[in-house]
# Entry
Amino acid sequence: MVFVKSHDISELTTELIGKQVVLGGWIEDLRKLGKMTFITLRDVSGISQIIVKGGLNDTLGEINRQSVVRVKGIVQETKARDFSFEVKAEEIEVLAKAIHPLPVDPIGRLESNIDTRLNHRALDMRNQKTASIFKLRHHVLQSLRKTLSEKKFLEITTPKIIGSASEGGADLFSLDYFGKTAYLAQSPQLYKEQMTIGLERVFEISNFYRAENSHTGRHLTEFTSIDIEAAFMDYDDVMDVLEYLVLEVYKFVSANCKKEQEVIGHAVEVPSSPFERITYKDCIEELKKEGEKVEFGDDLLDSHLRIIGKNHPGFYFLIDWPMKLKPFYIREKDEDTTLSRSFDLQYGFLELSSGGTRLHNPEILKARLVEQGLDPAQFTDHLKTFDWGMPPHSGWGMGLDRLMTTLIGVDNVREVVLYPRDPDRLSP
# Structure
């Protein structure tokens, strides 16, 4: 049995009229009119009309929609309004039957809630809106890698199973590792810092894990993070990289993914630049004017960020956070040691990225660990690399899933993740 296609449906053109082709795909729709059957055949690239006549029509029997077929036929002109040409079938073979009724309607005539769709995610990929989201995600990843490579960043892959709770121990999943306790990494932070010793500029796009029992449309326990670290860059420099990267993603998708935008029903508009940079101090003042009881040094709650986001829609940076609100590896500002060289990239109230300039002096780093109640002995492998000549460096991490929601205009990250994991979902 031969399954090979001669063409994807998108490769069919009027130049092929009169020529034989072999197509493969699934039946999206079919209509039987006497001794003729009209089949709407779809593959990942597009859609075509298939005409089945005469004796071949008699052999079709009962074929359910969404069944997978192989069609050999001749491309011919058509009178159909929605097609430029059609294929007159000479052979049609059912390769895999689909049950009826299906648990979700891939055509979207009957809407299913997101949990039902996630429970049948593979079938949901035949819904063209869902498929378009993941085609866009593919193109976003292409754009990210291309842009970072052009910026002279090298892609790395760091361990996801680690031997110590190296960033302070919060929100980590633990597991038995051959009789030892191991953890799932929540970021590549320490590893990517170490790589600046020899590779200078590195990036990673990978999945990480956070044991945070949050039930919102923006939190997942397994998420995809885009991380960079760069030697000889300050936090202003890596903010510039981040802004450029986001703009390039939007430009690429806006220009090259017209079909997907049309299917989703959302036009991607390139944001204005440069992104506004707002200090933490300015945020506190804004919140006080709004009647919020907040003082300098308080962490910004979701309710606070919603107020700030309303005042500053779109992309903006929150910069110069108090040192006490930032991780041990963040460096202070020279002119005011109570403030950090740090930033968050926001989209309205939604945090997309966090980053800053890192400490590269090992003695100050050890003191900072103690200051934050952490044991330097647990960081021995990391700290020793600083004795080998650690260059000044800065970096950030950004959630790909959250970035995707801003791009296509949805509120729930589960819409842009194939098989999302959250506190309530461990399958499929």
Notes: Residues 124-416 form a domain with the BirA Bifunctional Protein; domain 2 fold (CATH 3.30.930.10). The chain has two domains: 9-96, 124-416. The first helix runs from residue 54 to 58.
